[in-house]
# Entry
Amino acid sequence: MRSACLVAALAGLAYAVPQNINFEEIDSADALRLTGPPIDAVSQPVSYNGKAAKASAAAEVTEDLSSPSKRGLGKRGVNDPCSPQPDGYGPKPATNSVDDFLGFQTFATARVTIVQHQDTSSNAATPQGYQRSFQGLQGSVSANTYMGLYTLKTYDTIKCQQLCDAADSCSGFNIYFERDPTLAPAEACPNPASFTNIKCTLWGSGVTAESTTNKGQYRRDFHVVMTGSNGYTKNKPPSSQVGFTGPVKFGGAINAPDSYMGQKYFPGVYDASQCVAACQTNTAYNKRRPRGDGTYDACNFYNVYLLSRNNVPHGTYCSLYTKAWGKPYSTNYGQYRGSDYYSVSSSYGFTLNPPDSGHN
# Structure
């Protein structure tokens, strides 16, 4: 399905229409999938590369001009039957039951020995440059912006923050205790003894309490559950982009009276550079196909924001314009679709400098 911005590029027109969320493209590109680490994973280093994502976005926009593209996502871990499982550094209750694990007071209030003897989830330090999004929940984050997983030796929010800061486009992290099996469950050992892993997952968006929908899963007869789950979101705008001024923070998405070229949606990690690619690719396409008088529509401004459904992050939304717009026009805060609310957050504007006159 062709995106609105690509239809606009083909027509060579800048539209004066409401810049509503294009649900058809959301459905086509995204399928509203929620992801996180595989149930048996103890490590999934981040492989996201911003430069590669920008190049991929440009290629996708170019391809969309003639045909739709679809994305898939699938990862899984493999363990030999009844093989010993790694790590298990966290504290655990004296008994092996799920209820005792979830009610174990140590996860909520007792101290764990790390640098400066930090408390666990209820008193965990909030790293500088971050804000705590939620605390002490019994579930881990599932969203469309999953980046990677690390298993820690201690409940160390500062270590998890450092891993996020080292990962390209990481904007939030979730740290939690997980009840895991000591052996890989199999027919010969369907419900082995448990131990505790301390997991740190990284996300290409902020994290929210509403996104902690992974309340546990079964591996054979063994019940994997989570508790002491804290989430932290980075207080930082997207990076500046070469050839553009900005970012300028907006309260909502731009809804301008004219000059609208269209939009492009990228499911997954929130990454403003993908919108740069969409903007530049559309300009290049139009420039190769000018009107009879030599003019063409040039993308001189784009608005990027994180699109969420019911406060669960889903992807990067880009709206393109032939001229720049300011905060007074950032009036689209979200839309309902049935009972679901699609919200706008982390909305920023970038302006091409110098502007493209739109004439060969």
User: Anything to note?
Assistant: DSSP finds six helices and twelve strands in the chain.
